[in-house]
Write a structure and sequence with these properties.
The protein is an all-alpha fold. The protein has one domain. It contains 3 helices and no strands. Helix 2 runs antiparallel to helix 3.
Length: 89
């Protein structure tokens, strides 16, 4: 047998192992879905609070609150109610 020749059984086993690894990664992704989405929501809300909130009108703040609640419901992680409307001067 040549040095560069590939054994069909070895190749088949490697493909099987690769499929198994892909399956495990997919399961991890599903387990972490809520955490990943929550981090994204938190990042957007933090940006709004730090950079936009001071310039936003009351109805825009209210819209942001409603969007946050909708996003929380969509991923099933409702937390304590957030109200930014009270902080507008």
């Amino acid at each position: 047998m040549e040095a560069n020749a590939v054994d069909p059984e070895t190749s088949k086993q490697a493909m099987h192992n690769m499929q198994g690894a892909k399956h495990l990664l997919a399961l991890d992704g599903k387990d972490l879905f809520k955490d990943i989405r929550q981090l994204k929501i938190d990042r957007v809300i933090d940006l709004f609070d730090k950079a936009v909130h001071q310039y936003a009108r009351a109805n825009e703040v209210s819209s942001c609150d409603n969007l946050e609640k909708t996003a929380q419901r969509a991923i099933g992680t409702i937390t304590a109610p957030v109200s930014r409307a009270a902080t507008i001067l």
